[in-house]
What does this fold into?
Amino acid sequence: MNAHTGPQTAPALLRSDVDGVATLTLNRPQSRNPLSEAMLAALSEAFTMIAGDRSVRAVVLSAAGPVFCAGHDLKEMSAHRADADRGRAYFTDILGRCSAMMQQITSLPQPVIAAVEGTATAAGCQLVASCDLAAAGSQAKFCTPGVHIGLFCSTPMVALSRNLAAKHALEMLLLGEMVPAPEAARMGLVNRVVPAGEALAEAQRLAGVIASKSPATVKIGKRAFYEQREMGLSAAYDHASAVMVENMLARDAEEGIGAFMDKRPPVWES
It folds into this structure.
């Protein structure tokens, strides 16, 4: 992907596709891979393209360099304090664009797996929390440090509060301390902790397992998971039951169940 390079010549975001897995790599290591205007645009464009790409069955989100993502580009944002409205319109726009991109991850038909090495801070931590799964190197750390600089991490809070128990989320938000990968796993922010440098390989392994499943079934399941999570218990069961009826009538469920009974590998619809 060569769009949205900004003033630099290298693309802000790289993409490679292998065996149904699209790997996206944040490619601004010299500036700690911030969610700048260019990076947000590149990510949004990539997710839009992937959503309609039937050849992609899972997505891995990684980063170049020693930092996964440092969050918003504070220099870019602070420059707009000189605007007539002290930056209100710009801040509203950029935060809206960031929130929309995070929601693209949730609504994407394919599961998205973060591969984290180094640090993921503020909106970078939000990015990890927004992914469906996450693998982290043993030296990775996570932090929502806005409280230290008078800017509470309110938008990262949305994703954190939907991944972590309330007291864990508030601990990160109120203390702003670095959380080591093993502790992040205990809290529920990441799924796997692997030796440093192996997060990408583990994320791609998980993606490969997902890619071997029925893409239609994975799409149904991911969508239903996020839909039911916002409902009350009774409504969630009603919704999940209705989804399962439609799933049961789908071609891949018939094929999968038949293959199981026949003791043969299933052949999924592409």
